[in-house]
C-alpha cells in the first residue's frame, strides 16, 4: 500500500511527549466523531518531569513512536499537534476590554479583545502559550458566553493565560524537528485531556480534570462551562515507582512491575496478608510482605491528592460555590489513574465524586480505551478542529516560539463552536 502524507490527507496527528512514554496517534473526522486510525508508542528517554533534558534522546524516542504510528496505518507523518507540560507551565487569570461603539460584536472584535487581554507583562524568559476566554461582559452585564452578534458599547472578557518557559518550548520544537516532524501547534496537555474525556454537562456544573502522568500531575478546573484554573504539579507516577525502588531496595523496572500488578493506593481496605516474589538488584528472587508495598505507595498518593485539593481550593475561594458542593466532580485520567484504589482515595481526600476518564465520542474505542491515551486523543481532536476552522488554502508555516502567540486566537474561535 502506498503511504499517504499527513500534509495532504484529512487526518491529524497528536504527539503526547510524556516523561514515561511518547505516544503518537493519527485520526480522521467521520460523521462528526473522531476515528483513531493508528497509534504508536515508545519508551520516553531524555525527559524529566515533563521537560526535555537531552534533545538527542528525546528526538530518538519521538522518531520511534511516530514510525510505529506510520507503520500501523500505512501513512507518512510530516506534522503533528504536540502536547506540552512540565513544572515550568504557569497559568493566571487576566482581563481585557475594548469599545465596540454600539454595534453588533464581530469575530474580529473578539480577536481584538483577546489581544487586549493578553497585553500583560511576561518575563523575557517566558512565552504566552494560550489565552482562553473565561466569560464575557457586555456593558456591565455578566454571564455572556458568546458575544458575537450582540450589540454593545463596551465588551469585556475574563481570560485564563497560560505561559511556559521559552527554553522549554524551544527544546520541544527542536526535538520534533530532529525527528523530522513539523510542529503544527503546541497545546497544554491538560486542555487536550479535558477535550477528550469531559462532557459539556461536567464543565457546566463544575469539574476538575486531574491528569496523572509519569512525571507531572496536570490540573484543569472548569466552572460554568469555562476554564477557571490550570496547574502543573511536578509529581507523578514515576515518583511512586522511585519510592518503591528505594523503599524495597530493588531496580526501577521491578518497582514499576510491582506497582502495576500489585499496587494499591490505600492500605487497610483489602487483605494485606501474604508475600510477593520480588527480583532483587542482584537478580535473585526474594519474598516481601504485601503490606510493605502498600505502605510505600499510600503516602505519595496522599501527597499528590493534597496538592490537587489545594489547586481546586484556589478556584473555590474565588467563587461563592463551596469546594465541597455536590455540583463539582473530579475526573482522573493519565496512566497513573489506573493505580487500584486511587479513585477511592481521591474521593475521600477531596470530598467530591470521582470517576476515571477515558476518551469519549470516538468511533473505535477499543484502540484507545484507556485513560493513558486521553492526551493523545485530545491532541488529535484539536488538530482536526483546526483543519475545519482554518482555510485549507492557508499556507502552513513552521511553528516557532514567536509564532505561538499569533495562533492563540484560534482558541477563542474554538470556544464558540
Topology (elements, then pairings):
Blueprint: E1 4-5, E2 12-17, E3 21-30, E4 33-43, E5 47-48, E6 51-52, H1 55-73, E7 75-76, E8 79-84, E9 90-104, H2 107-117, E10 126-138, E11 141-144, E12 151-165, H3 166-178, E13 182-188, H4 189-197, H5 200-205, E14 207-212, E15 217-223, E16 226-233, H6 237-248, H7 252-262, E17 275-279, E18 285-289, H8 290-317, E19 329-333, H9 342-350, E20 354-356, H10 374-389, H11 401-404, H12 409-415
Parallel strand pairs: 1-7, 2-8, 8-13, 14-19, 19-20
Antiparallel strand pairs: 2-3, 3-4, 5-6, 9-12, 10-11, 10-12, 14-15, 15-16, 17-18
Gross morphology is globular
Computed CA radius of gyration, to the nearest angstrom: 22 Å
The CATH superfamily of the largest domain bears the name: ATPase, nucleotide binding domain
**Given the structure, what is the number of helices?**
12
The fold-level CATH name of the largest domain is Nucleotidyltransferase, domain 5
Strand coverage percent? 25-35%
Main sheet record: 5 strands, mixed
Count of beta strands: 20
Mean pLDDT reading = 86
Percent in helix:
25-40%
Q: What structural class results from the helix and strand content? A: alpha/beta
Regions with pLDDT < 50 over 5+ consecutive residues?
A: 320-326, 391-397, 408-413
